């Protein structure tokens, strides 16, 4: 489901806005934000929310990907007290005829995943009752308290100056929607469920019927990843300044020799890439998993920080690098911007370029046993060089999907424009 959020937002980050005068704030660009939501019809549980400047196949695919992913990291990053762990592969998606959902890329991805898509007839709003109610709930819980609302229609809006009174940034809107869904909506009795909450309904039906497991990690990267070219070598494939290697890749090298191959990478989690060898895709993990369980944009920021921190050194110990990265993540207030649901303003081409250009100007070396994390003969202790005092953000250590749930498809999901 994709629709217009009844709110005009400010584009810059709130950190920037805090430094601006009232006159400067008036000059900031305003934007109408579109909200793509995917909801499980049987339980009314919201599986995904994605914000975008305009509705597009990219935002629709992002919502589908999130629906099959654990979103607890997103919820916690925005300060939610509850988790957002529900995920699974939908059997049926009901959508209207919006351009996002009739696009060939979206329809082909849905078909390859074995999902049936059903388009609802135009002009019959009663067929969208479930999703319309969720929009009304989000409006009341997340948007109504803020100025800048556009309301449901021009009559309700009247002469209210929404553009002039925009007060929320992208990140603040994303946080408001996330908290409204995860902490409030999922835990409130729902009349359509006989007074049961969406969260309890989800748990009850999953316990009774199971949930269709999401695709495995390889399939997720192939279907939702960004394509690029990379060259094989003795140490594997180098991408985003990481080495990726596997036994299957090594065997292919020995049989076919080195050369350029097609790869797909997931900018949200760069711990593994998909590599196409002949006509078969294989999953190739990063050699250093501790440093790679981050998004591409997080790693670009972290590598720039490391270059600055260790600018005068030719070699830095691996524990020192890990310690520096952990400290940076603990103070990184922009982590939520890259957590998944805020507008993706970066093109696939720019993400490919970021991966190619991410570099570190020093060698990361192993050290002898007994050297503590954060200690290096060349770098010294880092604890006095990096600000501390804020809680560390949890890092997702998993590289594969949990497919332990029984593969029973028991519910349909609805997605509309």
Class of secondary structure makeup: alpha/beta
Low-confidence spans: pLDDT under 50, at least 5 residues? 1-20, 146-166, 369-412
Into which percent range does the helicity of residues fall? 25-40%
Largest sheet: 7 strands, mixed
Oligomer: single chain
**Termini separation:** 5 Å
How many strands? Answer: 15
Silhouette: globular
The percent range for strand residues is: 15-25%
Tally of helical segments: 16
- Rg: 23 Å
What does the average pLDDT come to?
A: 75
Q: How would you explain this protein's 3D organization?
A:
Helix content is 35%, strand content 19%. The chain has 16 helices and 15 strands. The strands form three sheets. Strands 1, 2, 3, 4, 5, 6 and 15 form a seven-stranded mixed beta sheet that branches. It has a six-stranded antiparallel beta sheet with strand order 9-8-7-10-11-12. It has a two-stranded parallel ribbon with strand order 13-14. Strand 7 and strand 8 form a beta hairpin. It is globular, with a radius of gyration of 23 Å. It starts with a strand and ends with a strand. Residues 1-20, 146-166 and 369-412 have low confidence and may be disordered.
Concise synopsis of the structure shown:
The protein has 16 helices and 15 strands. It is 35% helix and 19% strand.
Key features of this structure:
single chain, 417 residues, alpha/beta, seven-stranded mixed β-sheet, six-stranded antiparallel β-sheet, globular
